[in-house]
UniProtKB/TrEMBL annotation:
Source taxonomy: Eukaryota, Fungi, Dikarya, Ascomycota, Pezizomycotina
Keywords: NADP, Oxidoreductase
InterPro entries documented for this protein: NAD(P)-bd_dom_sf (IPR036291), Sc_DH/Rdtase_CS (IPR020904), SDR_fam (IPR002347)
Name of the protein in question: Uncharacterized protein
The species this protein was found in: Knufia obscura
UniProt xrefs under Gene3D superfamilies: NAD(P)-binding Rossmann-like Domain
Length: 288
């Protein structure tokens, strides 16, 4: 997994700004591409006071920031980034300084797919998929729980000068329908995504246990979105024949759009009763 290639992660470059928020600080893994990009954009449009895009490439993250600013017309949109390759992280607490920054929202969206059956999937690839899709989201969620606990002991003032309390702390994990449905050549991907759903359940309970210790805390919530097939770079590699076959299986006869998944995430962030919600967004594919 990690080994000699370990990279250091550049410090968050953002400019947090005061704004009317329902969310304060939101690290969004995969925020520079596909679904994560649309989530970052929606967070900005919905008044988040700092959105931190996580990407393996600084230039890609910066491009995403420029694009979001252009597309939303919000030139001062409070976006920053962390350059970070989850594959090489051995110690997130040291490696990713994001834990220094207080955040009340975490979007775990980074994911890699598997392209072969188990017989030809190497142990190194197995480790890589589990690391990026499951182990890192778990570690980031631990950081989030830690922040929640610390907030219980001593609520922080937002360094933007906005001292309003977050209405809740919320983790959103992006799973996949393949966590629930078989697919040739997806054994490890499916395992990682099923793990993420199972993990979310316990996270919701452990957040509640912390609040029992500090009743003045705002609630802690953890939720999962379960997309079917979404039109993003992730499925670009499929052959036309594969794409046609998949579309024919989806009752709505089309792929989902990244914007539609981002909408589901916004719903879960805004709806303060959503906790351990597993939101399927698959055009009906799960019914087949
Ligand atoms: N598209 C679908 O049909 C579909 C269906 C169900 C679930 N999902 C899930 O949705 C999430 C987003 O995928 P997408 O469809 O938007 O595809 P995408 O555009 O290919 O995005 C994948 C993202 O994962 C990030 N990533 C990959 N390896 C990483 C690593 N080692 N370290 C840090 N970040 C890494 C990439 O970040 P950078 O390239 O910026 O470094 C990229 O932003 C994934 O978790 C995926 O499993 C997708």
């Amino acid at each position: 997994m990690a080994g000699s290639n370990q990279r250091s992660c550049k410090e968050y470059q953002g400019r947090p700004m005061p704004s009317k928020v329902y969310r304060n600080r939101c690290p969004c893994s995969a925020g520079a591409s596909g679904i994560g990009y649309q989530i970052s954009k929606q967070l900005v449009l919905n008044g988040a006071s700092a959105v931190v895009i996580v990407s393996r490439t600084a230039a890609k993250a910066q491009q995403a920031i420029n694009d979001i600013r252009k597309e939303t017309g919000l030139e001062d949109a409070p976006l920053g980034f962390v350059e970070c390759d989850f594959k090489y992280l051995t110690n997130l607490t040291q490696g990713w300084k994001i834990s220094k920054h207080q955040f009340d929202t975490l979007i775990n969206c980074a994911g890699i797919t598997q392209t072969q059956g188990l017989l030809t999937t190497s142990p190194a690839t197995v480790s890589e998929i589990l690391k990026v899709n499951l182990e890192v989201p778990i570690e980031l969620s631990r950081q989030m729980l830690k922040q929640y606990f610390m907030y219980g002991k001593s609520p922080w003032n937002d360094s933007t000068g906005d001292s309003r309390r977050p209405s809740s702390f919320c983790v959103i994990n992006i799973s996949s329908l393949l966590a629930e449905r078989g697919g040739y050549g997806t054994s490890i991907y499916s395992t990682s995504k099923a793990g993420l759903t199972a993990f979310t359940r316990t996270l919701a309970l452990e957040g509640a246990a912390i609040r029992d210790k500090f009743p003045a805390l705002p609630p802690f919530r953890a939720n999962v979105v379960v997309p079917g097939y979404v039109d993003t770079p992730m499925i670009e590699k499929f052959s036309n024949a594969q794409k046609d076959k998949l579309v024919a299986e989806i009752p709505l006869r089309r792929y989902g759009k990244a914007e539609e998944v981002a909408d589901a995430v916004m719903f879960l962030l805004k709806n303060e009763y959503a906790n351990n919600t597993v939101l399927n967004l698959d055009g009906g594919l799960s019914a087949t």
